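Duplicate of #3305? Posting structure anyway:
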């Protein structure tokens, strides 16, 4: 169908725009409830949080309208330029003398504070879509894959240098985009394994087995590495079952015998035997790759040696890279420490607030936990507890369902794109929204670590609201021009 400039307005997905307006409105009422003080009912006063948020919402609506009015080709043409500008801002912010709550991620311009990390998400999505949208791009070509990973990881590293680990972790959501575009499932499997290694290794690092010398954490992770390697050989090297049987019998069998010997004969650290077993396993995989001339054995070798290297680096990362408050939060989440008045205070108070809401909630502006300011950051990172207390179970489920419909709509829009550029950008948008929703609600309920990321359209703040608005409305403009 021919594309006419006077018809693009009709092609805008107004269902998604309507969901955006509903979520923003619900978010504003939540900010009103979270920031309300007895005796100050004027929500339109620009000196209050509710008034400022209303001003940010108005600016966001104007910004969204402007983005829809721009020519859609601009986003494709200037994707790399926008990405480069945001990288410079991220780099410059590292040396910013203004430190807010221990973070150097803010640019202060008089009374206005902006966080470039929030805008870097849409810039990274544009650059990734631009690169992957090229005709010559192939996700199976390792050079293209390296460049795509670099586009994602460079802003992530710069944000980590700003001491904003939570915002940096959002960029992991782009791996869902790579998986949708054909990235092998083994890479996603490796990512899941890395999370398991980190959790198990950290959680049980201080627990000793019966011989009082072997760490449960290291023993379990090394056993998992051998088992996962055997699983990969079974899945990707099906010419013979003998390698799988040999790996399992030699690797796990020798570890079991060593453990029994340590428990009942002479106590020693079984982890030393496990390390030797992993070295032998790597040599065996190299031998199979050279002898059978099967490339997959080399990939599994890289997985095995990478798993061992990752595991032994987790302790260093945990103790030297993560901030002290982040370490405590992870320990509290994993049950390693009980700190109800310190690192666990936010989550405990949030649970109390949500639980006190009951089925129907206490009603708008009637939440006692939020009014008495028991929940820190209750109008930003922990805004969802206000929904739970004032609107109860029904209101919380309604908000989650609204987000679910919103994300489902983004999936629908992404799948109907006529170009790879539009599809990749669309999946980048929905992946970022899904990550924010899952982690934010999870940390309020105590299911995920407290990493300090906002709930889209709900959390107070202009940077996050503008960032999400730009992210969404650029996609809506690209979608409106899909039939050209």
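Output from current build:
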């Amino acid at each position: 169908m021919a594309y006419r400039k006077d018809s693009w307005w009709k092609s805008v997905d107004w269902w998604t725009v309507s969901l955006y307006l509903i979520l923003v409105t619900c978010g504003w009422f939540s900010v009103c409830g979270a920031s309300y003080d007895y005796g100050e009912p004027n929500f339109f006063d620009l000196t209050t949080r509710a008034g400022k948020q209303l001003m940010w919402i108005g600016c966001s609506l104007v910004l969204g309208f402007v983005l829809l009015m721009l020519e859609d080709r601009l986003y494709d043409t200037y994707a790399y330029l926008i990405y480069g500008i945001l990288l410079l801002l991220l780099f410059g912010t590292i040396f910013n003398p203004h430190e807010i709550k221990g973070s150097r991620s803010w640019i202060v311009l008089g009374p206005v504070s902006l966080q470039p990390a929030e805008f870097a998400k849409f810039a990274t999505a544009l650059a990734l879509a631009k690169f992957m949208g090229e005709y010559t791009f192939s996700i199976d070509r390792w050079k293209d894959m390296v460049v795509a990973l670099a586009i994602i990881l460079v802003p992530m590293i710069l944000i980590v240098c700003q001491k904003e680990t939570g915002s940096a972790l959002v960029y992991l959501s782009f791996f869902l985009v790579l998986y949708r575009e054909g990235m092998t499932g083994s890479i996603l499997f490796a990512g899941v394994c890395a999370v398991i290694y980190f959790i198990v290794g950290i959680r049980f690092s201080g627990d000793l087995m019966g011989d009082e010398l072997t760490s449960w954490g290291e023993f379990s992770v090394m056993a998992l590495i051998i088992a996962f390697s055997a699983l990969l050989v079974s899945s990707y090297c099906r010419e013979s079952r003998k390698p799988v049987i040999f790996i399992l019998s030699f690797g796990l069998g020798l570890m079991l015998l060593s453990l029994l010997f340590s428990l009942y004969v002479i106590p020693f650290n079984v982890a030393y035997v496990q390390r030797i077993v992993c070295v032998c396993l790597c040599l065996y995989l190299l031998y199979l790759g050279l002898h059978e001339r099967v490339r997959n054995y080399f990939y599994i070798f890289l997985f095995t040696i990478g798993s061992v290297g990752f595991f032994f680096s987790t302790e260093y990362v945990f103790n030297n890279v993560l901030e002290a408050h982040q370490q405590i939060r992870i320990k509290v989440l994993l049950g390693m420490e009980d700190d109800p008045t310190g690192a666990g205070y936010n989550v405990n108070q949030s649970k109390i607030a949500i639980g006190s809401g009951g089925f129907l909630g206490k009603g708008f502006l009637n939440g006692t936990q939020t009014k008495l300011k028991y929940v820190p950051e209750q109008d930003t990172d922990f805004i969802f507890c206000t929904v739970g207390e004032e609107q109860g179970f029904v209101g919380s489920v309604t908000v989650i369902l609204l987000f679910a419909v919103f994300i489902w709509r983004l999936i629908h829009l992404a799948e109907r794109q006529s170009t790879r550029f539009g599809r990749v950008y669309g999946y980048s948008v929905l992946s970022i929204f899904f990550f924010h929703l899952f982690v934010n609600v999870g940390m309020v309920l105590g299911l995920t670590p407290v990493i300090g990321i906002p709930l889209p359209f709900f959390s107070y703040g202009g940077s996050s609201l503008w960032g999400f608005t730009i992210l969404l409305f650029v996609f809506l403009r690209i979608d409106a021009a899909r039939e050209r």
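Confirmed duplicate; merging threads. The chain has a mean pLDDT of 84. The CA atoms of residues 93 and 105 lie 6 Å apart.
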